[in-house]
Amino acid sequence: GFYANLLLTQTPEHILTQTNNKTEIFCELKKEHTGVYWYRWSQERQHFEFLVFSNTLGKATYGTKVSQDKFRVHEARSQSSFSLHISHLHPSDNGTYYCSVSQSSQLLLGSGTRLNVVDALPLPLKTTQTPVSKKPLQRITKSKAASRKGPCSPLVWIPLAVGVLLLLLGLVPTAHRLYRLRRRLWLRIHRQ
Fold this sequence. Notes:
Layout: E1 2-4, E2 8-11, E3 14-18, E4 23-29, E5 35-42, E6 47-55, E7 60-62, E8 71-75, E9 81-86, E10 95-103, E11 106-109, E12 113-118, H1 142-146, H2 154-191
Parallel strand pairs: 1-11, 3-12
Antiparallel strand pairs: 2-4, 4-9, 5-6, 5-10, 6-7, 8-9, 10-11, 10-12
């Protein structure tokens, strides 16, 4: 099962930044864990991608074609706070980033951080200097996201897709054992 939950808090909700900058996404955990997974959902490519897993010893395992120069996971000494550093930003990095932990055969997902990388930041409308607010530019509440047209919002099917992927990956060793057992039986029958 998948749960957006109170056991992990992900911040910020939204990041708007320029090409070639770097950014950081935070994930705070309130329970024991073996490490943190980071995923990215690309709306443009309709693709959910595994980026990196960092265990409690600080060892990182990267997804296929994921640059170690671009993505780094940093961990606080308490082992309850992780951050994903993304450098050399480019519009192709746009997407929603999720931190995640595995807890008693369940995958717990953070609330997601939407990253928008643009070549030039929009200019403010007023010419007078106004203080920059630290609040996210756009908030999408769960009720708004769930009320989008169509039977399945991304809040429902993204965690579902990750679950199916993890289930399939879990079946690979079993399928391999069955293949070896079948081959052994076949060889035994044909030797007689």
